[in-house]
Amino acid sequence: DSGVTQTPKHLITATGQRVTLRCSPRSGDLSVYWYQQSLDQGLQFLIQYYNGEERAKGNILERFSAQQFPDLHSELNLSSLELGDSALYFCASSPGQSSPLHFGNGTRLTVT
Amino acid sequence: AQKVTQAQTEISVVEKEDVTLDCVYETRDTTYYLFWYKQPPSGELVFLIRRNSFDEQNEISGRYSWNFQKSTSSFNFTITASQVVDSAVYFCALSPPNFGNEKLTFGTGTRLTIIP
Description:
The structure holds two protein chains of two kinds. By secondary structure, chain A is an all-beta fold.
């Protein structure tokens, strides 16, 4: 068990809808990262937050947004969903910039 | 630009055989970190190891060993006496230490199947 908790485990929704994925980092970890794993793109970095502030952005679509709350949990919001957004979304946390990432179990999103 | 190549898409071996997963990387950075992660059928990503480019010593952890060769830009992973529980997708990854995890580049993964 990595200590990173993601909910829900599975999500099935329709195109055009909006969903929120939730992540609780390991105790003491200030950094939260979101990754998308799809069959065609592999593991792609989306966005990072550090202690409530956005720190880095990767290949995140404008339809997607995230935030990190004062208790350090994070939410990834996906809107105007398309079929191509179907993927496994991982949250990871680390205590610092260069510390290894520890991943949650992921949220499998299916857009129908 | 960074790149990680895992040329072996899928490997199948019979239980108790040894198996080596290849990882070749490209980077212009003089210092960097290399990682291996395991993704079992249940889906989670499990951190296995991180190596600093300064440290070219091979590492052994139980049945797992890693061979880092800077001269060939490779960081190969060997499982000795494989077991069914080793069946998973294994990812090699690379990051420059100065920029942190947001620059973590993953390979496409190698799916390892251990046949009982």
